[in-house]
Amino acid sequence: MWRAFVESDMQQQTLMCSLYCPAFTVFSLTSDSTGGTSQLFHPRSQDVFQNPMCLSLTCVSRASPQDQCDIIEKHTQSGLELVEKYVKFVKERTEVEQNYAKQLRNLSKKYNLKRSSKDEPECRLSSYQSFLDILNETNDYAGQRELIAENMMMNICIDLTKYLQELKQERKTYLMEAKKAQQSLESTFKQLDNSKKRFEREWREAERAAQYAEKTDQDINATKADVEKAKQQAHMRAHVAEECKNDYAAQLQKYNKEQSQFYFNDMPLIFNKLQDLDERRVRKLAQGYILFSDTEKHVMPIIGKCLEGITKAGTNVNEKNDSMVVIEQNKSGFERPGDVEFEDYSQGINRTSSDSSLGTPKGPMDLLGKNRNKNFWLFSKKSKRFTPDRITPTVTEDFSHLPPEQRRKRLQQKLEEICKELQKEVDQSEALGKMKDVYEKNPQMGDPASLASQISQTSQNIERLRGELNKYETWLAEAGGRGETMRYKPQTFNNNGAHDVQSPDGAQSDESTPDSSQAIYAEFDDDFEDDELTAPIGKCTAMYNFPGASEGTIAMQEGEVLAVIEEDKGDGWTRVRRNNGDEGYIPSSYVSISLNK
């Protein structure tokens, strides 16, 4: 298409004078009216401009092919600069994405809870968990922004930069070819111009010599020798002029041939190559434009999932459950205080609400057998002294600084942790024992004595954990009050690592039960009959038979209806009562419970 700059025919001569035309002056040779001596016509003469062909050639002589080559060179250079500008734009866009992703990650990290804070009670609330989910989704969203920046850099910036360097080198080669062709044509034109000027000069000398010979021939005073000499001089000048004319004609023919090759072959071929180069550049740039959008489209589904995760986090918030979690975490287990009695000093009766049992239910510490006479800070007189020490009680190992209900939960959690750790040590002890047996049977596999230190350390750990287990079982029995310790079913381990599961009342089938625990249980049983019956909180219907063989449990038959005295506290046992007054614990999964509203 770009070869239209140089293509020409007879109907387009006038148009082509504004495109590629050699900067040369055309001279035409013609014969005089007598058919004798040839005369030289300059294109600027009045007669030449009357010839349409001479007019078109005159127009061609007033333009330069370098003009159009400069236009194409400028156009292709502008296209390459556009590619460079686009690459720079995408690079800055990737920097924006990377900075955005970095800020999002820092923001998520700033508001995310530290590892030590994840055990806080508030973290169990659904609103807190949803906020953590939002922070995680924000972090994932930042990762997708980083992926966008990375893909843009790889697929657009690096690829286009490499392609741009190839185009620059290719363009440079084509422009060098055009420059060489132009220089060759200009060199031929200079030779043509020199031969033309020499021909013009010699032809004028021949004309003057001919005029002098004619004048001498007509001069009566001139001798015959002068006439012959003048004619010889004229003939010689004419011969030299004829040779110059032939040389000029040859140079003109050579130049016209090279000019035709230049305009109809060389330059169109070079311009077609430049056109193909430019079109490839435009096509590659268009692909870069599309990639700019597709790169972000490819991650939009994942970004959409991140946003859906944030929406789901909002819908997962349950204010009712959060309220129940707060209640469960913070309920104290204390009984509500009774009414304060009227003290009638006029009758001389000095009674205080603290030592009166009329109309006032027993406090929580009154239900703890031998500990009933101990003062408890919330209901004791000392509680009236509101000091900072009372606000932040000292944390103790037995969790006695906590309210009864919270203390029981913490003790149960501690027991579970100890049981898991103890089980781990027992398993390790068994593994070491098996390994020792293998070493003893196959000495080549190892030295049994090398395991002695590990076996000894494991045994010490087991003894230490058993001691802690008994200690926390005792504290749990004290904190649980009447019947509370019977609901907990910790696992104990014998010397062989076997599990012995306690019955719901806390009694083990193994004889390793601590004496202190038995004493506490006995004291609780002694106080059991002294207390008045607790009002039922609902009913339950037995779905299966339960023998109730263990101490503290009660037998039941399928379909039997029992009164619920105490709900399941999370240990799998429910306290019930028969119509005859018998009370005990049954598995919660064996009955269908209906509580009073």
UniProtKB/TrEMBL annotation:
GO terms for cellular component: cell cortex; cytoskeleton; lysosome; plasma membrane. Transmembrane segments: none annotated. CDD domains: F-BAR_CIP4-like, HR1_CIP4_FNBP1L, SH3_CIP4-like. Residues 505-516 have a biased composition (Polar residues). The keyword Transport does not apply. GO terms for molecular function: lipid binding. It holds the Pfam family FCH. Residues 486-516 are annotated as: Disordered. Residues 535-596 form the SH3 domain. Keywords: Cell membrane, Coiled coil, Cytoplasm, Cytoskeleton, Endocytosis, Lipid-binding, Lysosome, Membrane, SH3 domain. It comes from the Eukaryota. InterPro entries: AH/BAR_dom_sf, F_BAR_dom, FCH_dom, HR1_CIP4_FNBP1L, HR1_rho-bd, HR1_TOCA, SH3-like_dom_sf, SH3_domain. Residues 164-233 form a coiled coil. It is found in: Cell membrane; Cytoplasm, Cell cortex; Cytoplasm, Cytoskeleton; Lysosome. Residues 55-322 form the F-BAR domain. GO terms for biological process: endocytosis; signal transduction. Residues 401-478 form the REM-1 domain. SUPFAM superfamilies: BAR/IMD domain-like, SH3-domain. Belongs to the FNBP1 family. This is Thyroid hormone receptor interactor 10a. It comes from Scophthalmus maximus. The gene is trip10a.
